[in-house]
Amino acid sequence: MVNIKYRNYMKESSSAEHREQKEYFSGPYALVIIPDTATVERVRSLARQFAPNAEFQTEIPHVTLFQAQVTDLPAEEVKKLLKELENLRGKQFDLDKLEIFAGQYIFWNLKNTPELQKAHEATLRLVKYVDPEKLKFAPHASLSLTEKQMESVKKYGHPLSGDAYLPHITLAADSRGISLPDGITELPHQLTVESSRFSEMGKHGRVEKLIEIPNEI
């Protein structure tokens, strides 16, 4: 029997679903993990609770595996990676620590595991399609980053990749600054992977579109 909450969530998210016939993609794209419905609901609830007036509260909660400004990324490369990432479906990972990143984001971090790190590193094959000319215009260019995170930007096109990988779900973001309530540092929760998806990204790490690439391309 289909879980009613999950069915309603998918119906609600259908406006973000797009079937693309493109053979190549250029722009801000990502490979992300979509969590189970219970986690989606918890994330949205926490975002409303912790940051009710933030510029951005997550609408499609996700864990980023790879994100960058790319040029001429072949759809075939994306399909190969998504097939490899299918083995994450149904796997469970632990969310725990809450933190403020760069003064503008509330992160709910996952405990990294060898399996999760391996999945992230597999997606780094796409680095060869990162557009170096657009790095200085990327959203993270204005953030206060550590030296390690800056090196990650130069190498991978994102501050939290490679050795600096920090798996997390963004709850909310605000360019004016953001904070957590006093005493809130950890919230243990177990996430189950619903799927791995290819997505077009927007401001504050927002998923603009979940993209389906047809098999016939």
- Give me the CATH superfamily: Cyclic phosphodiesterase
The figure for the number of domains is 1
What percentage of residues falls in helices of 4 or more residues?
25-40%
Tell me the total number of β-strands. 9
Supply the CATH architecture: Alpha-Beta Complex
Strand content: 25-35%
Between the first and last Cα atoms, what is the distance in angstroms? Answer: 33 Å
What is the general shape?
Answer: globular
CATH class: Alpha Beta
Query: Please, how many helices?
Result: 5
Q: Flag low-confidence runs.
A: 1-11
Average pLDDT across residues?
88
SSE series: HEEHEEHEEHHEEE
Radius of gyration: 17 Å
Helix-strand category: alpha+beta
Biggest sheet character: 9 strands, mixed
Query: What's the CATH topology name?
Result: Cyclic Phosphodiesterase, Chain: A
What do these coordinates show?
The chain is α+β, with helices and mostly antiparallel strands and 217 residues long. The chain has a single domain (23-212), classed as Cyclic Phosphodiesterase, Chain: A (Alpha-Beta Complex), CATH 3.90.1140.10. 25% of the residues lie in helices and 34% in strands. It is built from five helices and nine strands. It has helices spanning 4-13, 37-50, 75-85, 114-123, 147-156; strands at 17-19, 24-35, 56-57, 63-74, 92-101, 105-110, 168-173, 186-201, 207-212. Strands 1, 2, 3, 4, 5, 6, 7, 8 and 9 form a nine-stranded mixed beta sheet that branches. A hairpin with a 5-residue loop joins strand 8 and strand 9. The longest helix is centred in the N-terminal third of the chain and has 14 residues, at 37-50. It starts with a helix and ends in a 5-residue tail after the last strand. Mean pLDDT is 88; it is low at 1-11.
